[in-house]
Amino acid sequence: MDQRDVLAAWEKFVERGALSSDLRSSVAASWQRSKNHRVTVDRARAPLVADAELFRHRSKHASLRHAARCALENSKTFLSDANSIMILTDPTGLIIDTQGDDRVIDAGRTVHLEHGGRWSEADIGTNAIGAAIAESKPVQIRGTEHFCSKVQRWTCAAVPVHDPTDGELLGVVDISGPASTFNPQSLALAVSVGHHVESVLAQSVRQDHEKLLCHFLAKRAQWLSDEYIVLDRRGAILHATERALSALQNNRHGIGGETPTRLLKAIPFDEWPVKLKELLPNASFDLVENETSGIGAIVVLHARRRLPIADRDIQKLKPAFEHRETASLSRPRKDVTPEPQHLDGPLASTTSSFVARDPKVRAIVRQVETAAARKMPILIRGETGTGKEQLARHAHAASGRRGAFVPVNCAALPESLIEAELFGYADGAFTGARRGGATGLVKEADGGTLFLDEIGDMPVALQAVLLRLLDDWTVRPVGGVRTRVDVFLVSATNASLDKAIAEGRFRSDLLYRLNTLEVTMPRLRDRSDFAAIVHHLLGAIDPNCEITPATIAGLAARPWPGNIRQLRNILARFALASADSFIDEVGLEAIICQAPLTTSGSLHDIQRARILVVYAETAGNISETARRLGVSRNTIYRALGQHKPR
Length: 646
Prior knowledge:
alpha/beta
């Protein structure tokens, strides 16, 4: 149906309630739902929530916003020419982020297609965001297909974003613009971005699971006589001895029949101890956190006698490092690995948690120690996984400062919350503020070290805030008074800052404040202390695990694009799978071959990775690969870097 026919069908439905059989089924169903919600067609704009409520929603869905950040930032470039904007909503349809053509963003305010606008079908009738939520599938709504007449000036394409572990709806990615900009390919773009966001979320889940299980491995010797359960942040059971699992299931009748996943996922992490105590009153709990949030817990049911770990228990751990967990992961995930807790092996200087037997690294460490003792700002460059944060922690230790080491992921700070996160806020500073206020990350680092990670990806707004801080080292909490702080500053990046400065994405005056000393960590394959790194990592993962020199030599010959982080992951995989704590070439080769293909995370790389997987599954059959993926053979040739035969 063309737009005139759709308009006639809409008028007929509004006047008589009759649905045309020529309408697309998704549109007809949405019109009917809109009518059932008692939405009137003359509703001029979507409801708009207050700033305090928007603040709470954006904070609640920080992980979703972080996963979508790169896609949203990229959209500003390619959507500005298309006269369109990209929108991210929470699972209720409330808009929490927008990016794209500034003119379209301004025009969207007339119908509250902006931050804080509620775009469920119950709020504003048929639209792509609301229909995608209602039908849990990608939807495109064009012009007169909207239910409310004022919104019929728009066209939109939306796709739901789901939790990669349990399929729960997390939000919606939408591409909107004036009706005149309608393009059927907008839906395909929205779907690609939605898949990218889910991939980033899956990587984050994978990383948290591996950190959690590595933490468990490091402490496993303490609980050889006990029963235990390893729970992730969602309450899913990653690993459990049979008796502990049975004890938890037996307690289910006393908690209303709810599973741990539903109970724990719904409550803040700081409330877990109370809830876990309610579930298992005789157990002890080891809560595990990363730099910004809780990632899970180890629940220990203490026994009176030693119970050996059975092989079946070890086998339960393995899937958590492969493509699924024993909990209920409904989708495959990319292989990502956690930052190692220690870089390599013993160091000849300040601390034994950081080895620098390679001459280049030893020279870097000595420079860092000298700068740290003088409180000079340090910038650490290097590829991902080379141990930048571990070097920063070593700098903190070498500085002799008694305050805390406070890491800040600059790329993850939401622009609207930058000052509240860094400087904190006073009690009652705004509606919805935490009782008693919040200290702020800079104040937490007072007397210690502030570690700014991923500075190359920090928003421009954050760069301006940091420049003000570096001018006088005073902070003023939102609604509070200004105070001076004493902070040692260390920064790190794997990005090309020179390129970012040339493109206007990074301020040169900020770089000059951060790099009084600038060092670059070498890649793992360029280091001469590979064996020492392996032994140190194994010592942290499982002190009883042994590895042969021949195996170390075989590992050293590999390229290791993920550097020490990737090496630690492979060793952790084997430590989990090994029954006799002995690593040889055959066993390790099997583990390496099981490791999923990793990608840089860009949409192009994710698509290419998927093509390579199917290409391998079809034994190199180009036509079959194209058929399975629903793309042309030219697309396959381009992904493989081949030329189509003539």
